[in-house]
Design goal:
alpha/beta, Rossmann fold, five-stranded parallel sheet, 5 helices, globular
Length: about 130
Amino acid sequence: MRPNPSALVVDDNAINRNLLDGILRRIGWTAILCEGGEQALQTLREQTFDLVLLDLRMPGLSGIETCRRIRSELGLARLPVVAYTAHGMLEDRDRMLADGFNGMLIKPVSIADVKAVCAEFGPAPE
């Protein structure tokens, strides 16, 4: 039996982290939560994930810089990284894709939003 798909949730706001954690668990995913970019990079060095949900605006290492480092330093070019942001316009999505993100999830999120992202970027069901 295959384990549940896993997501790394990176957000400096505990409420947002816990909300995503609850939604992901409800739809059958396992979530690991990180407070910032440096912690996320360290976690990605130690574990593999099916998806990363990455807040853009965090103190210290921004989501954009974290995504760049996931791609360059860690060499995880195929890992789906989805920008998780309250600032989502069409032109922002184009910029996020250019910065190495695979997609964008707009706050506040719903279960349907998270399900759609997981279905689009997560592993194919068996």
